[in-house]
Amino acid sequence: MLSPAKSHLSFINLKQLNLLNLFLNRLHGSIPDYVADLPDLETLQLWNNNFTGVIPRNLGRNGKLQILDLSSNKLTGTIPQDLCSSNQLRVLILFKNFLFGPIPEGLGACYSLTKVRLGQNYLNGSIPSGFIYLPELNLAEFQSNYLSGTLSENGNSSSKPVKLGQLDLSNNLFSGPLPSSLSNFSSLQTLLLSGNKFSGPIPPMIGELQVLKLDLSRNSFSGPIPPEIGNCFYLTFLDISQNNLSGPIPSDMSNIHNLNYLNLSRNHLNQTIPKSLGSLKSLTIADFSFNDFAGKLPESGQFSLFNASSFAGNPLLCGPLLNNPCNFTTVTDTPGKAPSNFKLIFALGLLICSLIFATAALIKAKTFKKSSSDSWKLTTFQKLEFTVTDIIECVKDGNVIGRGGAGIVYHGKMPNGVEIAVKKLLGFGNNSHDHGFRAEIQTLGNIRHRNIVRLLAFCSNKDTNLLVYEYMRNGSLGEALHGKKGALFLGWNLRYKIAIEAAKGLCYLHHDCSPLIVHRDVKSNNILLNSSFEAHVADFGLAKFLVDGGASQCMSAIAGSYGYIAPGTHHLQLP
């Protein structure tokens, strides 16, 4: 803690102190106000501690503050108004706190700023005019706040290109169209706008960017995909899913030769899927599902790598992969045969019949799903924005991502974009005599720890049990270490970080929760990695219910079991 009287006097006497770095400690309490009174303070880094309270209001008024990093604490209150009082501030990092209120307007004119990271707070209001167009700014992160309003045009009449290389506005409340002056971002490599309320067309100027990663998903963009997007030759990641886009996929998209991730799902795109996309040799993940595509599904090139789930929800698509044969009939016009107008009528008749059968099949499937979902019981362990029907929809062969002796794991994406993993348990049968199974599931569902995979819900009927977990995008540590590309991204610093995080999760299970949980099958395949490569311990706590309690027979699937549990201790102590 920094607030004892002696420390106060000691700091006050350090008139020439210009750098104070106390990051990665366990310091707590509030940041003392006298830190803001140090006349020569240029750098203040207190990140990754447990500081609470507000940021000192006078911070920055000395006119010399250049670097401020208070990230990963528990700070509340608002951002001080005078952080950039003399245009000296270069780095402002406040992410992962509990800050609220608006971003100070003065920061929109802080021309010295090069890096700003304000994500994962509770900030509201709009981004100050001119902020994202600051001439020296190269990184700007505002993700996961409550910011709203529209993005302003660049007020600089000279339209001089700006240096911004990464802009993250995802998971906020921004609305309106994208400004045309985004074309000023000649150095932009990452543009993340997902999870907002942006509307209007995707502007053609998007083709002027040299962007590597573009995420416009979960907005309200409408109109066609602009052909100019094919000019983004360096693009490797493109996600424009869950919008209101319509029209065909422009053939120009096949010019993006470095593209390896493409998600066009849950729009209103139509016509045929261009065969030319199969020539994109880097394209390994693609999702065309839940659109209005029609015709024969291409089979050559990269299309041979995709499974049926990539094209689900397009009833007019046909091809062997979809178990929907393309019944195109050709009639040769020869003497004595039917005239050409009969050929047209015959073809239309076949098409109408196919549509009738397809519609009937869809209605029957929906009716079956509704009736079957009524027999399922859903137990949730947190607020969910999807239903048991959405969960059941994931349980199909095209979504399988793992198998084991005790269960099959499916990947699913909910209508709101949330990704989940669904584990179908094998060998449990009827739950009428569960011998405490449901009680144990309830206990596991209440566990809350940053480094333990969260159990979101439990679904069951008389024949089947489904466990719904948060989805870990980067798979298991075992896959990362021993897979084909593992050594390319798991450097030693990241491996050390993963080891520490896994140890924290195991420590909680073994020592801090009640009843104590002994994992008993700790291995790299049971350490899962999220999209940020943060480690999460998985596969524990259910082995005592497998094969009449024979946990040793099922260690490869759902391993681990409870050790000795004293009577009456089935109450969880949350961290």
Automatic annotation (TrEMBL):
InterPro entries documented for this protein: Kinase-like_dom_sf (IPR011009), Leu-rich_rpt (IPR001611), Leu-rich_rpt_typical-subtyp (IPR003591), LRR_dom_sf (IPR032675), Plant_LRR-RLKs (IPR050647), Prot_kinase_dom (IPR000719), Ser/Thr_kinase_AS (IPR008271)
Coiled-coil portions: none
Protein name as annotated: Protein kinase domain-containing protein
Residues that span the membrane, as ranges: 344-363
UniProt subcellular location: Membrane
Record domain Protein kinase: where: 395-575
Pfam families according to UniProt: LRR_1, LRR_8, Pkinase
Keywords from the named record: Glycoprotein, Leucine-rich repeat, Membrane, Repeat, Transmembrane, Transmembrane helix
Natural source organism: Salix suchowensis
Signal peptide: none
